Amino acid sequence: MTSLLKDKNIVVMGVANNRSIAWGITKSLYNAGANLIFTYRQERSKQKLEKLLEKNEIKPKFIVSCDVEDDESIEQAFQEIGENAGTIHGLVHSVAFANTDELKGDYADTSRDGYLTAQNISAYSLAAVTREARKFMTEGGGIVTQTYLGAERVVPNYNVMGVAKAALEASVRYLAEDVGKDGIRVNAVSAGPIRTLSAKGVSGFNDKMSVVEEKAPLRRQVDQDQVGDATLFLLSDLARGVTGEVLHVDSGFHIVA
Ligand code: NDP
Ligand code: KAL
Prior knowledge:
With 257 residues, this protein is α/β, with parallel strands linked by helices. The protein has one domain (9-248): NAD(P)-binding Rossmann-like Domain (Rossmann fold). It has seven helices and seven strands; from the N terminus they run E-H-E-H-E-H-E-H-E-H-E-H-H-E. The longest helix has 23 residues, at 112-134. Kalimantacin (KAL) binds next to helix 6.
């Protein structure tokens, strides 16, 4: 337990189940004293989240529905969060989506619709939620999103999601400039492969996991708790000089040729 985020109101988007990266983040933030507000899309995710919170004796400040494909849903969610919490000090964006049939084969075969869906949910959404959250971040604070190496390099099968993550990482920099004047920092964690609901069933995932164990300087896989602690650091005052940054939490995999 630390008090790095004592009395801070932090919004967490993207818990689907106990394997979610956002759940690892939740545990780190809770142990640092944060008051937590959650958003979900699917009713099933809400139910899983409620059970997890109960089991771990975490009392949420607020849980609200938010579909990041829908501007009205985002506006309404943050309006309710603002009314309920007053000030927001932090936001965790842990949301991405692409159609499974676009996550294999040639990137050149990506459909226009598939491209727009991936960009819409996985990249544009960060700008949209930053815009709404900012209204209530009157004391400054931090925003952290989740990205992957496929934004920087060609990773087979990641395809349209790699292009969306490249847009997400560029958005981190542009948004950092926008909101820096309000004392708000925007950063990303670039995690190594972690077995989650999203990762399940997409081809090539297992190979990516094993190559980290073989080749990464630390010779071990990454887990949700490591991403949670790095996200905690970026949200906390320890990172008060850090913005527009992409922090790799990948056992050092990205430095190896
Ligand atoms: P999860 O499947 O656990 O989480 C994905 C989340 O995205 C779900 O909670 C889902 O909500 C949410 N989501 C999808 N579409 C929408 C939408 N339109 N509106 C609101 N929420 C939506 O997977 P992860 O924890 O793996 O993914 C979290 C983040 O981490 C993603 O950005 C992913 O790209 C990134 N990442 C993951 C890595 C990995 O190896 N797992 C590696 C590097 C980055 P719901 O189920 O309710 O629809
Ligand atoms: C090279 C890697 C192997 C996998 C390739 C692509 C992974 C893309 C991630 C993307 C978020 C997956 C999906 O959108 C899955 C979706 O089409 C189907 N799943 C769902 O709808 C479930 C039920 C919900 C909860 O999922 C979502 N997202 O809403 C990349 C690996 C090594 C690293 C990963 C997995 C990176 C990443 O970004 O997740």
